[in-house]
Amino acid sequence: MKYTKTEPEITYAEFYSAASPVKHFKSLTGKEYDVISVKNDIMTFVRKATGEIWSMSLKGVHQAYLTLIDFKTANFKAFVPRTHSPALGLLLHIGLLIKN
């Protein structure tokens, strides 16, 4: 699937302001996540279906957004280990990516 960046030069401060208030979001495949906290640039969230707790670097998600052209979840690996699908879901949720 192809995506278009809505804010290709967004600063980290702007990104953080958009991402940090998020309380719920979904992955591309529809898995639901509830955000537990955002502290020191780390978003901690729980996958609702399994109760599994995950942590994700918001700086990593921001860097992936600025760097990537192809937003396949596997391409997030260098930026956010183990949270590729949630990272893409967060970018879609806050409107920084739109599906073509």
Textual characterization of the structure:
The chain contains three helices and six strands, in the order βαββββααβ. The chain has helices at about 10-20, 60-65, 85-95, and strands at about 5, 25, 30-40, 40-45, 55, 95-100. The strands form two sheets. It has a four-stranded antiparallel β-sheet. It is globular. The N and C termini lie close together (about 10 Å).
Give a quick set of tags describing it.
28% helix; single chain; 4-stranded antiparallel beta sheet; 3 helices; alpha+beta; two-stranded antiparallel ribbon; 28% strand; 100 residues
> Structural class, please?
alpha+beta
Strands across the major sheet, in which order? 2-3-4-5
Mean pLDDT: 96
Give the proportion of residues in helices.
25-40%
Q: How many β-strand stretches? A: 6
Distance between the termini: 8 Å
Return the domain count. 1
Order of helices and strands: EHEEEEHHE
What proportion strand?
Answer: 25-35%
Give a topology summary.
Blueprint: E1 3-5, H1 12-19, E2 24-26, E3 32-39, E4 42-47, E5 53-57, H2 58-67, H3 84-93, E6 97-99
Antiparallel strand pairs: 1-6, 2-3, 3-4, 4-5
Short characterization:
This protein is an alpha+beta fold and 100 residues long.
